TrEMBL record, chain A:
It is a multi-pass membrane protein. It comes from Taibaiella lutea. It is found in: Cell outer membrane. Gene3D superfamilies: Carboxypeptidase-like, regulatory domain (2.60.40.1120), TonB-dependent receptor, beta-barrel domain (2.40.170.20), TonB-dependent receptor, plug domain (2.170.130.10). This is TonB-dependent receptor.
UniProtKB/TrEMBL annotation, chain B:
This is DUF4249 domain-containing protein. Pfam families: DUF4249. PROSITE patterns: PROKAR_LIPOPROTEIN (PS51257). Residues 1-24 form the signal peptide. The keyword Signal applies. Keywords: Signal.
Length: 773, 268
């Protein structure tokens, strides 16, 4: 361990050269609402340049003298500021919003996202403005659905919350909301995400080449940031749609110093249920609440406290007080402290809480019981950003996470029909240190290198098991509270580099290793709130992925168009799948007895052509890819297509500003059907048709395609009051995309079997009204 | 925890109600594969219950009729001692009308066909008395459905597995009603036999409901559990697969030594 650390430090310091210069630094904010500006470019005389970090902090080294300081950011008016600087100086900057018309927006190189120069590869960044016009189901703007229109990020399909990034599984995406992991990012079984776009600032998705500060999942990082809250004026905005209503209130607590934000959303489809006689006792809704306060404690310190609470409730009544209920939800809380030691040194300390739980309650006939399950994290994080000079920015940090997993507890309320049982709780502790350096080698070459070194320790109390070759328990080991049962040590090197070919194009390459110690066990094709999170055990090894990617980036026509072409190859170790006929509800303490382990590989080619400005904006994305698994005990130990293996995946997203009043939008998606197992034949056992299966995932679902249309009409556009009407039509040409295909005996002629395709949504129109004052 | 699955149906039902779903019979182009032997073998605690059916897999678009395989030597033994060589009474159906099993005893099935041998072992569970059954009406989403409920007293400290077969006016209801005592060891079972109302006419007042309660061993329970999970053609299973069989040798199907009890009730 010690060897690793000193190795890391050596690595980091290798490229550092010292120079006697002065440093200017500070915080960049928006003048209108006081929100910090992330990724703004700061240049002195167009030579030395830097960008603001995720808290709006920037730091720039310059020789003492006179300069024009130029600050620019997407959607903001560029500031040019003449300065004479002889010593280290703090300059806080307020930027004015740019004109609202897209045509006039000054284009600047955005950094958090794609940038020619930055060494970061395989990253996508979307602002809420970019997703504003994308037509969606029931008119609910949704960042999660929007990013699934980008190359390499695949939707799991209608009615499914999952998302597959570069061949990864649905549980291999690290979803962070203000740094807090969100374990189940879906509402209503996947039709909506837990993220209310009104509360969000932006989303950054890393598909590869993850910076060293992120870790814990194999395939992607989704870093979602909430707005801080307007510290200048009170703002109220809201919307009423077909199935939900939402309200956002923000404003200063003390002007310029502190602000708050509260955003709430609730669906009311169940109100209609109440109106009908048949369904009046049933419930089906979700709500979520985002809240944030922040305080500026002088020039050097700022505190943020943010939280998210969401809940879904499903309930069915059988009459006579009997019924069934299922509710689930996430709760997260993040307390952060920004401290500026000096213009070169920025620190962020975070305390993070994250919880996901579900409850099932059943009262029917003889049964009266509840089932509870939850996963809870406590997380401490410290990161230092050291702006050593204009050519080296070092980030290093420490992260300590405690996981507490209660896989399931059955509480019987009558004790006549069921015994109360609890599966054993699982505890684990993660310790991670990381360091990275963004090194500007020359004007053409940028390199970012670093590593994460982490331990994952499984803690007692609990029983752990040994298994024989057939998966039967042959050994049970008892451990006491606090006892370290097993520690996994993982080193994750990260490297990425960019080389500017000329002023409009660059080449980039990256390598990243990721490890994952929390695994989602799902028994069905669609995601379910009752899917189980498991920590690594003595038998479940950490999942490991290694990915290399190579990309070509090109801007056209004065940066109006950007083209991104990337290719990747990824290998995955210790992938998990079920044994045939696995039963995860039974013997669940030794759940390993139901699992098989193997490996995976994924490779592909991604194209993205984006038009960012002008009346017509949007993008075209295409992915050509292959994803396979090899697990002993499945498919005769041969490689087989993973479910998410889709050869082609295509999306067009466009919006057109028809007039100041009307904006039209459309998106069209097409992808190869998922790989799936169909029966090779059938036979009769005990008078029932049993389907005979040979090869895993050897067939394909029908290809999926869909067109959505949208139109937004701005009504009033005044400073104190603005409103708009948004229309959308989901699945405009009514394609019956297969949700699932089932095989069954024909009802009228039981001597025959038939394949039946079940499709959801055809033509779902919606209308919503949004306002702001 | 079978009921959890039943309630997943409910969620699905709620979802389907809340959206516009449509079903369409489609033609799926399925490749032909080699035929495989299917063994459907049962020994019960009653005379006439020892029946072994041999057949082969069929193409998906073939009919469902039973096409038996003749010429096999089928024997049942216990503790290595041959109890019976079964007679082929019709094509592919091998029977010993006198053989019945004893509780707590392990039985070995052997099938020899075309020089290949297939074997399986099953233990007949001790009988747990089938106390009673009743039918009552439950309301789901404003509609009333009648379901039968079986009652029995599970013995403490033994692992018990049950399977029910329901006939309404002589017609067998679809679905496998399998029960376990993993979470209810030693409890009084009052288990409702929920079944898919879309596929079969619902139970009406005055209908005759016959319920066979089978006591089965764990491998047989596993067979039916995995059949329900992954081989019944239904939606939802992440990985369709052949049921977990207790037959050794390259064959499909199962062998169960099981006890059986029957109750007949009239729907109110």
């Amino acid at each position: 361990m010690k060897k690793y650390i000193s190795g890391l430090l050596l690595l980091v310091s290798a490229s550092i050269t010292y120079a006697q210069k002065v440093t200017i630094g500070g915080i960049i904010k928006s003048k209108s609402d006081g929100e910090t500006v992330i990724g703004a470019t700061v240049k002195a005389d167009s030579t030395a340049g830097t960008v603001s970090n995720e808290y709006g902090f920037y730091s720039l080294n310059v020789p003492s003298g006179t300069y024009v300081l130029e600050i620019s950011s997407v959607g903001m008016e560029t500031i040019k500021m003449p300065l004479t600087i002889t010593k280290d100086t703090t300059i806080n900057i307020k930027m004015e919003d740019g004109s609202s018309s897209l045509q006039e927006v000054v284009i600047t190189e955005s950094t958090g996202g794609r940038s020619l120069k930055s060494a970061q590869t395989s990253v996508e960044k979307l602002s809420m403005k970019e997703i504003e016009h994308i037509p969606v189901l029931f008119g609910e703007k949704d960042v999660m659905k929007a990013i699934q229109l980008l190359p390499g990020i695949k939707s799991a399909g209608d009615g499914n919350a999952g998302m597959f990034v570069r061949g990864g599984a649905a549980d291999q995406n690290l979803i962070l909301l203000d740094e807090a992991p969100v374990y189940n990012a879906s509402h209503l079984l996947g039709f909506f995400s837990t993220f209310n776009s009104d509360a969000l600032k932006d989303i950054t998705v890393y598909k590869g080449g993850m910076p060293a500060r992120y870790g814990g999942r194999l395939s992607s990082v989704l870093d979602i940031k909430m707005n801080d809250g307007n510290n200048q004026d009170f703002d109220v905005s809201g919307g009423v749609g077909l199935i939900s209503a939402k309200l956002n209130v923000e404003g200063p607590i003390q002007k310029d110093k502190s602000s708050f934000l509260i955003t709430g959303r609730r669906t009311y489809a169940d109100m209609f249920l109440k109106l009908s006689n048949e369904y009046k006792d049933n419930s089906l809704y979700f709500y979520d609440l985002n809240a944030k306060v922040n305080y500026i404690l002088g020039d050097k310190d700022r505190l943020y406290l943010s939280g998210y609470f969401g809940k879904d409730k499903l309930g069915a009544s059988f009459g006579d007080g009997e019924g069934f209920g299922l509710d689930w939800g996430n709760a997260t809380g993040t307390l952060r402290w920004n401290h500026i030691f000096n213009n070169n040194l920025f620190s962020n300390t975070s305390l993070i809480f994250s919880n996901y739980n579900y409850n099932i309650s059943i009262k029917s006939g003889a049964y009266d019981f509840d089932i509870k399950s939850r996963i809870q994290d406590l997380n401490f994080k410290e990161e230092i950003q050291w702006y050593l000079n204009n050519n080296n920015t070092i980030k290093f940090g420490y992260n300590l996470i405690h996981h507490d997993i209660k896989p399931g507890e059955v509480k019987s309320n009558d004790l006549t029909s069921l015994n109360s049982t609890a599966l054993e709780s699982r505890y684990a502790l993660e310790n991670v240190i990381y360091a990275s350096n963004a090194w500007k080698v020359s004007n053409k070459l940028n390199v970012e290198y670093g590593a994460r070194l982490g331990t994952f320790t499984i803690l007692g109390p609990g029983d752990y098991y040994g298994l024989d070759a057939n998966g039967n328990v042959n050994d049970t080991m008892h451990y006491n509270s606090g006892q370290a049962i097993k520690t996994y040590l993982n080193l994750e090197p990260r490297l990425s580099a960019s080389y500017m070919l000329n002023t409009v194009s660059s080449l980039k390459a990256s390598y990243a290793r990721n490890t994952q110690n929390l695994h989602l066990i799902s028994n069905s094709t669609s995601s379910s709130p009752t899917d189980k999170w498991l920590a690594s055990t003595n038998l479940i090894k950490p999942e490991i992925s290694d990915q290399v990617s190579l990309g070509y980036y090109r801007d056209f026509a004065n940066d109006k168009y950007e083209l991104t072409v990337e290719t990747y190859y990824k290998t995955m170790q210790n992938q998990i799948d079920y044994r045939d006929g696995a039963n995860v509800y039974l013997n669940s303490n030794a759940i390993e007895s139901q699992l098989l382990f193997g490996k995976g590989r994924a490779y592909g080619l991604e194209f993205l052509l984006k038009k960012k400005v002008g009346r017509l904006s949007g993008w075209i994305s295409y992915t050509l890819s292959k994803t396979e698994r090899q697990i002993d005990g499945i498919n005769n130990n041969q490689w087989y297509n993973a479910r998410q293996d889709r050869t082609h995946d295509f999306a067009i997203v466009a919006s057109y500003e028809l007039s100041r009043k009307w904006t039209l939008s459309a998106n069209w998606v097409y992808y190869t059907g998922d790989a799936i197992t169909f029966p090779a034949g059938k036979y009769q056992v005990d008078g029932q048709t049993v389907y005979y299966y040979t090869n895993r995932n050897a067939y394909r679902m029908p290809a999926y395609h869909r067109l959505d249309l949208g139109a937004t009409c701005k009504l009033a556009q005044r400073k104190k009051w603005s409103s708009e009407l948004a229309f959308s039509l989901y699945n405009a040409y009514g394609r019956e995309n297969a949700y699932t295909i089932v095989f069954r005996d024909n009802k009228d002629d039981p001597n025959k079997t038939e394949a039946v395709k079940i499709a959801l949504f055809k033509f779902i129109p919606s209308i919503s009204y949004n306002f702001k004052f | 925890m079978k009921f959890i699955k039943s309630y997943h149906y409910l969620i699905a039902a709620l979802l389907v109600l809340s959206t516009v779903s449509c079903q369409k019979v489609i033609n799926v182009n399925l490749k032909e594969t080699d035929k495989k032997l299917v063994i459907d073998a049962v020994l019960t605690d009653q005379k006439g219950g020892c029946v072994v059916k041999l057949s082969q897999t069929k193409e998906f678009y073939d009919d469902n009729s039973f096409t038996g395989i003749s010429g096999a030597q089928v024997t049942i033994s216990s503790n290595g001692q041959l109890l019976s060589t079964l007679h082929e009474t019709s094509q592919g159906v091998y029977v010993d009308s006198d053989l019945k099993g004893n509780y707590g005893k392990a039985y070995e099935l052997s099938v020899v066909l075309n020089g290949k041998s297939y074997t399986a072992v099953s233990t007949m569970p001790y009988l747990v008395p089938f106390d009673s059954a009743y039918a009552e009406t439950q309301s789901f989403f404003g509609n009333n459905y009648t379901f039968a409920t079986v009652m029995l007293q599970d013995p403490v400290d033994t692992q018990n597995n049950y399977r029910c077969i329901q006939y309404v006016n002589g017609k067998r209801t679809k679905g496998n009603f399998i029960l376990d005592d993993d979470y209810s060891d030693g409890k009084r079972f009052e288990s409702t036999l929920y079944f898919d109302q879309n596929d079969v006419d619902s139970i009406k007042s005055g209908d005759e409901i016959r319920i066979d309660l089978l006591g089965i061993d764990r491998p047989t329970y596993q067979y039916w559990f995995s059949f329900e999970q992954s081989a019944s053609g239904g939606q939802g299973s992440a990985a369709p697969a052949n049921p977990v069989s207790n037959i050794k040798g390259d064959a499909l199907g199962y062998f169960s030594a099981q006890n059986t009890q029957t109750k007949i009730i009239i729907a109110p």
